[in-house]
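User: Run a structure prediction on this.
Assistant: Running it now.
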Amino acid sequence: QESGKMEIFSKINMIYAMISIGILGFIVWAHHMFTIGLDIDTQFYFMSATMIIAIPTSIKIFSWMMTLNGKKLSNSSMNLWSMGFIIMFTMGGLTGIILSNSIIDINLHDTYFVVAHFHYVLSMGVIFSIFSSLIFWFPLLTNLNLNNNWMKINFLNIFFSINMTFFPQHFLGLSGMPRRYIMYSDFFMLWNMISSMGSMMTSFFTIIFIYIFIEANLSKRLNIF
């Protein structure tokens, strides 16, 4: 294990946290619907339930961080992707707490702030963990070694470019730019250009990520255990 420990920190609390998130996930659905004219009591209930789900989520994040605590952090590519996942997932969670407030959400609903929020959780949080898993399992399943230096450089490139894509969208949303519009005012031009450049860079570096796996298959560098 990269952490050098037998199991994750506070395993029992992690189990309860995941069960809690699974149960609470069934009763927070209307936080997507604050703008449809819900009465104030219903808004308050779903706002509270959405904020409460942040508690077991923060327990999970704390456990991940404490699992890495107390060890000499290696700069292996899998470790970098894992830490990148924690950073991205936490960032997405923080903007989720902002949007859980119904008064704020009514103003930010259907803007690019929401797009930035769920992409930090999904496109950056979940995808980073999937990439980390691929790097972990590929050598075990194929007995082939990935180029670690290329992987580390690729991580830094993707980390920078994907933040360049989605972080400016917070500013676009706060400025009032709505989602799903192909035309927009020149007032939004700067952040849109930065986001578009980041998107193209991310696409390119993702292709490089796939190529690194192809290169490992072609070069036949065997693992030595």
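The chain has two domains: 1-74, 75-224.
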